[in-house]
């Protein structure tokens, strides 16, 4: 059974998690992986669906915050300009962005015959980290079919974490990194709401990691190195929000990264995307004026705290769940889970 951070008696912050402590605690959100683990390949795709319908026709309000922009993602410019997401989100490695882009376009065209004819084109969102230390990234092994497999595997419920999907070949703080998730629950106007985070953790220098109890694990035989990793954060909530408010919340993902000891080095691509499942935007809206619900700005600190806490825990869940991994050319990353078991008590 895969272990998580809380199995070692460690928690992040004061807010309570959702029942799964995962981004899929946000109603409607689905997640799927495709993992390629053979030969010198340690890679894959992870797909996140904000809802189960046609995202082009029912877009979700969204925002992006570029914490440090050393990255090659697709779709962020239009996302920032319009404040909308209109395809599933795909996470993969740096040189697979094109394959993910093509897969999302293919699916959107099949579902919407008016794209590029009676209406505009489509804006796929693909995010990436470089898994080249453990995987042969030059092989460019990921294909459209692999992206389709991740999309088709998307489901509600518990989330596979660690060395799966896009996280298969990732590293963090000198340990094995990967995919991790966490969530937080809170009440607004007497109703329960949820904020969840999905992290693709591939960042941090060995020796910089700080655990919630203050310990600083150092991987065996760690060597000093420049910070050239990346981290992708997807933040989802069911709270009605403006895109401007969503960007403010996305920015607080950086607070969660800082709690871990990250400083967002020059060569690091650190991106946070936030969206709300509340009040989807109708692509075919006939009215000139439409109603908009939004959070009272004086209550937004609760979501800021939730984003920081869930980000911190999502990254640590990724690292705890990921096993020690040997990949391309014998490159090795030890497991934080193994370190915690060896240093229990």
Automatic annotation (TrEMBL):
Gene3D superfamilies named among the record's database cross-references: L-amino peptidase D-ALA esterase/amidase
Region span, Disordered: 325-345
InterPro entries for this protein: ArgJ-like_dom_sf, Peptidase_S58_DmpA
CDD domains per record: DmpA
Pfam families, alphabetized: Peptidase_S58
Family: Belongs to the peptidase S58 family.
Name the record gives this protein: D-aminopeptidase
Organism: Bosea robiniae
């Amino acid at each position: 059974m895969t272990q998580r951070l809380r199995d070692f008696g460690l928690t992040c912050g004061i807010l309570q998690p959702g029942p799964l402590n995962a981004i899929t605690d946000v109603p409607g959100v689905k997640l799927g992986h495709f993992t390629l683990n053979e030969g010198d390949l340690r890679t894959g795709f992870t797909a996140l669906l904000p809802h189960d319908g046609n995202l082009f026709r029912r877009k979700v309000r969204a925002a992006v915050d570029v914490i440090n922009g050393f990255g090659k993602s697709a779709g962020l410019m239009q996302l920032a300009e319009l404040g909308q997401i209109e395809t599933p989100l795909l996470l993969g490695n740096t040189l697979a962005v094109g394959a993910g882009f093509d897969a999302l376009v293919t699916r959107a065209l099949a579902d919407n015959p008016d794209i590029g004819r009676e209406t505009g084109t489509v804006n796929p969102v693909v995010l990436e980290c470089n898994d080249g230390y453990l995987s042969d990234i030059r092989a460019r092994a990921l294909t459209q079919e692999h992206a389709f497999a991740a999309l088709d595997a998307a489901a509600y419920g518990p989330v596979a974490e660690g060395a799966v999907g896009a996280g298969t070949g990732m590293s963090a703080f000198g340990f094995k990194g990967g995919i991790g998730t966490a969530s937080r629950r809170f009440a607004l106007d007497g109703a329960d709401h949820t904020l969840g985070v999905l992290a693709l953790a591939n960042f941090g220098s060995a020796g910089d990691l700080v655990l919630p109890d203050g310990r600083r694990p150092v991987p065996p035989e760690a060597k000093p190195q420049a910070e050239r990793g990346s981290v992708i954060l997807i933040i989802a909530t069911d709270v009605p929000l403006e895109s401007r408010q969503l960007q403010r919340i996305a920015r607080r993902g950086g607070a969660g990264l800082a709690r871990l000891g990250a400083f967002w080095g020059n060569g690091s691509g650190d991106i946070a995307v936030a969206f709300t499942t509340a009040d989807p935007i109708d692509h075919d809206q006939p009215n000139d004026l439409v109603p908009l619900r939004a959070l009272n700005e004086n209550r937004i600190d609760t979501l800021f705290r939730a984003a920081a806490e869930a980000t911190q825990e999502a990254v640590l869940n990724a690292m705890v769940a990921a096993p020690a991994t040997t990949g391309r050319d014998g490159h090795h990353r030890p497991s934080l889970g193994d370190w915690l078991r060896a240093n229990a008590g």
